[in-house]
Amino acid sequence: MKKILLGLLLATSALTMGTSCTKEYYEIAQARTFFYTVKAQDWAKDENGLFKTIIIDELSGSSYSVGAVTVALSNNNGASYDDISTFDGRAYSFNYASGSLTLYAQDPILDPNFDVEVPETLLVKITIIDAEDRT
To answer: How far apart, in whole angstroms, are the C-alpha atoms of residue 8 and residue 28?
Structure first.
C-alpha cells in the first residue's frame, strides 16, 4: 500500500512540476566591433599620464545605458591583442560616455617623475554589445 501511495505521490509531483514550467525566449545580443589606429602624437597629456578620446556615434541609447563595451589593444598591427591592463610598463584603462570613449595610458604607480610613453602606433579594438533592459 505504501508503494502505491508513494508512486501516486511521485506521479502527481512530476505532473505538477512539468506543467508549471514556463519557457522564456531571449534574442541574441548584437555586437559591433570598431577598429581605430591611434598614433603616439594623438594622445593628450594630463596630470596622471596620457589620454585619447575617440568619438563613437554608435555608443548611444541602449548601447550606452544597458549594453557593454570592451576594449583590446594591439601594438603589433593586430597580430595579437591585450585586454585593457598593465603591459609594456603602462597601465591602460578606459571609460565611456554617450558618444565617446576615452583611453588612458598611465604610470602604474603614478610616479610624478615618470613620463608615460606609448607605442608609435596602437590598434584599438572596441566592441559594443547591445542589450535590452529587463528590469
So the answer is: 42
What pLDDT was estimated at residue 7?
Answer: 57
Residue range(s) defining the domain that contains residue 89: 31-129
Q: Which of 65, 53, 51, 54 is nearest to 118 (CA)?
A: 51
First to last CA, the chain: 50
C-alpha cell at 133: 533592459
Q: Is 25 part of a structural domain of the chain? A: no
> Is 3 within a domain?
no
- Supply the pTM of this predicted model: 0.74
32-64 pLDDT, tens per residue? 999 999 999 999 998 889 999 999 998 888 777
Q: Which one is predicted more confidently, 43 or 87?
A: 43
Q: Helix (H) and strand (E) counts for the chain?
A: 2, 9
Decide if 1 is inside a domain.
no
- What is the total count of domains within the chain? 1
* CATH number of the CATH domain containing 88: 2.60.40
Helix, strand or coil, per DSSP, at residue 107 = coil
